[in-house]
Amino acid sequence: FKHIIEIHTLQDHQKIKHSLIFLISILYKEKMELEDQKKFFHGTLEITIFDATPFSPSFPFNCIFTKPKPAYVTIKINKKKVAKTSSEHDRVWNQTFQILCAHPIADTTVTITLKTQCSVLGRFRISAEQILTSDPAIINGFFSLIAENGSTKPNLKLKFMMWFRPAYLEPGWCQSLEGQSFQGIRNASFPQRSNCRVVLYQDAHHRATFDPRVHDVSSNARNLWEDVYKAIESARHLVYIAGWALNPNLVLVREEETEIPHAVGVTIGELLKRKAHEGVAVRVMLWSDETSLPMIKNKGLMRTNDQTAFAYFRDTNVVCRLCPRSHKQLPTAFAHHQKTITVDTRVTNTNNKEREIMSFLGGFDLCDGRYDTEEHSLFRTLGTRDGFYQTSVAGAKLSRGGPREPWHDCHTCVVGGAAWDVLKNFEQRWTKQCNPSVLVNTSGIKNLVNRTGPVTEEEDDRKWNVQVLRSIDHVSATEMPRGLPVEKSVHDGYVAAIRKAERFIYIENQYFMGSCDHWENKNDKYE
C-alpha cells in the first residue's frame, strides 16, 4: 500500500485505480496458487532407487536356483509408467529420477514395483496426499513390499528416497536468466553449451521483402534450403543426414534471384552423389517405413520415399541406410522423426585452414511439399517445380487446380559445441542400427577443431547458449544418459519453459496432446 499512498499525494486518481487493480491481481494470483496446491500434485517428484533385499531362496529351492534373476524397478503414477531402472542381478541400482507431475491430488497414487522379467516381486504404494503431508518431507528408508495378494512381505524390502518440490517454488525465467544461473535441462544427454552461433529459419524459403522486425531491428532472415545447399557443397570431410523422409529428386534452390545461381535446379541426390565422388563421407540415415513395399510398388502410408532414396543411392559412394523404429508392442506405429544435417565447414573470421562442425536441425525434412514461403499460397504457386503436395483435402490434384497444402515450420543452424552434440547423436544412432565402421573418425581430421573457449570481439554472433534435447530410447541409440532406457529431454524442456513463464505462454506446434490422460472420455476432443 506504500506505493498507493505515495501516488495519492500526487492526486493521480487514475494511477490509484491501476495500482489497486494490480494489487488485486497479485492477491488473486496468490489465492489461486494456494487453491491449486490443494487440488493438484503439481511439481517435481524426485525418487532415488538404491537397492533391494538380495535374492535368497529357501530350501530346497536354494539347491536349484543358485543365480538370481536380474531385477528392475518401475515407477507409476496411477496406471502410467513414468520411470524404469536398469536390470541388475545384485539388486543395486542407485538411480535417480525427476518425475514431472501435474495431477489431481484426490485420485493420484504413486506405485513403486520390484520386478523380474517373469514376475512381480512386490509393490509399494503411496498417495499424493500422503507425500504432500509427510513429516519429514523427505521419505527415506527400507520399506517392506506388498505381494500381489495384498499381504506384506517382511523379508523383501526396497530402499529408496522420495521428496516432492512444488512447481510454485521454482524460479521464473527472469530470476533464472539473471547472472546466467540457468544451466539447462537436467537428465539430458547433452549439457547446455555456450559460445555458439545460431541462425533461425522460418519456412524453407521467403520472399526478398520478408523482414520481420525484432525490437525494431532487422532479423536478416535467411533462406533455409539455400543455406543447406551451400553447407553441403562446401563440406570437405563429412555430410551426415538423419531424416524421417528424403526425396533424392528434391530441388533445394528454385528461384532465379539467389546467391548461388549455379544451384538452381540441382537435386539433393545429385549434390550428395557429387560430394561423395569427391571423397566426402556422405552418410544418410532414414526411417524405414515398414508399409513401403517396393515389390508391389506401394509407396507406404506416409509416402516418405525411403525405398526410392535407398534405390537411388545404391551402387554410389553415398551410404544410405533405412532404420526401422523398433518397438516390441507396436513395431509399425512409431517413427524416427529427427531431422538433422551435419557437415564440416570453414572457421569464419580466420585466414587459416581450420574447419569446424555445423549442424542443421528442426522441423524440415528434405522431401515433398516442404518448399513454401511466408505467403503460404494455396493456388498461385501450383506451378512450383515438382512441389505439389496435398494430404489434407480429398481429391485435390494439380490437374484439378489444387489447392496445394501449405507448409509452415521452423529450423535452425548451429555452430559450436551444440553442433558437435548433433553429430554425436547421429553417431550414436548409426552405431546402434547401422555399421559403425563407415563413420568418420573425426579425431583423425587434423584441421577439424571444437572451439569451446571464449569468443573474440569480432565474433559477436557466437554468444548463444544452446542445449540439444531429444526423445529417444536405448533401442535406437547407444550411450544413453546414466544407463537409463529412455531420454525425454524434449518433454522436460517444454515443461520447464511453461513452468518458468511469468507473463505469457505461446505454443505453436504440429501436435499438442497435453493432459489427454485426464480427459473424462477418451473420445473427447477439445478445440
From TrEMBL:
Enzyme class: hydrolase
Annotated ranges, domain PLD phosphodiesterase: 332-370
EC number(s) on file: 3.1.4.4
An MF annotation (GO) of this entry: phospholipase D activity
Name of protein: phospholipase D
Keywords, comma-separated and alphabetical: Hydrolase, Lipid degradation, Lipid metabolism, Repeat
Catalysis performed (reactions): a 1,2-diacyl-sn-glycero-3-phosphocholine + H2O = a 1,2-diacyl-sn-glycero-3-phosphate + choline + H(+)
A Gene Ontology biological process term: phospholipid catabolic process
Entry GO CC: plasma membrane
Alphabetical list of InterPro entries matching this protein: C2_domain_sf, PLipase_D/transphosphatidylase, PLipase_D_fam
Originating species: Noccaea caerulescens
